[in-house]
Amino acid sequence: MRRMTAEVRLDPADLILPLFVADDLGESGKPRIIASMPGVYQHSMDSLVEICREAVSLGIPCVDLFGVPRSEDKDASGSQAWDPDGVLNRAIARLRDEFGDKLLIMTDTCLDEFTDHGHCGVLVTDREGNVAVDNDATLELYAKMAVSQAEAGAHIVSPSGMMDGQVEVIRHALDQAGYTDVAIMAYSAKYASAFFGPFRDAVGSSLWGDRKTYQQDPANIRESLMEVELDVAEGADMVMVKPAMPYLDVLAKVAEVSPVPVAAYHVSGEYAMIQAAGRNGWIDLDRTMMEALLSIKRAGADQILTYFALDAARMLIDERPRP
Length: 323
Ligand code: PBG
Known about the structure:
There is one protein chain. The protein is an alpha/beta fold. The protein has one domain (9-318): TIM Barrel (Alpha-Beta Barrel), CATH 3.20.20. The chain is 39% helix and 18% strand. It contains 11 helices and 12 strands. It has helices spanning 2-5, 45-57, 87-99, 135-152, 166-176, 197-202, 222-234, 248-257, 268-279, 285-299, 309-318, and strands at residues 15-22, 32-33, 41-43, 62-68, 104-109, 123-125, 131-133, 156-159, 183-190, 238-242, 262-266, 303-306. The strands form 2 sheets. An 8-stranded parallel barrel has the order 1-4-5-8-9-10-11-12, surrounded by 9 helices. Strands 6-7 form a two-stranded antiparallel ribbon. The chain is globular. Ligand PBG is lined by residues 108, 110, 112, 160, 196, 199, 211, 267-268. Ligand PBG binds at residues 108, 110, 112, 160, 196, 199, 211, 267-268.
């Protein structure tokens, strides 16, 4: 009866698996443990292909790729980001070659993994002598990065840097280069959140300072609704709310008004908390995981980006009633 009357259901097709590929692991290195995210690894090219094979076999339609360059390859503008030989672009090409259209390749279109200062854009010193991210100079680099990712074979680019006008500039650049069918998943309502903590370990981030000048203030919701409206007007094919669980109210409001699919990113800190409590025996890890993902869907998410994607898909398949 419960199964029949459930108002929402999770399906592996709802899930997007974020993955990290590290240049220093080479083609065939062993995956490297990320201490603050048990069960999540930095991958070599070969181990990336393996985990994607598993995702496909479980019915997960999409992966979201993040590149981890060697620290000596980082520079002030993050130039590895649009280099066809950069770690992320090589990973995209390898996966597209292996899987064709059987797996959607979504890519992080942001400079923070590639800059030596760890910010999502290039820096400028303003009249008062403060160092800040230069919004408009950064847009040109995002355009180059998105086109290089499309060239490498990405199906979806996802600008996550929260620069004003990023969706419009990327849409225009993709269209000019002939990639009219490459979609944009816009990180529209992305908050300056402490829940991103473990992610910074995952990508070996060199961030100094914070991202409060370009990410949303956790106190605000109207601002996020405006960001969604702007991104849709600029050509976003999908929008995202991030993090997920602390922002379910934002997600619900966005889902109410958005004319395009709405994704939610269950971020590194949310994952780490459930893992930590689960591994300590303080909560039931599997049940908590499924309840978290179900709640995100109930609040209005059409897709969920989650480091739990493989585990959750496995459980969903195991729980399917068999004749
Ligand atoms: C920026 C980016 C971040 C995350 C995804 N894309 C980090 C940030 O904005 O500081 C965080 C994801 C997570 O915490 O799981 N490229």
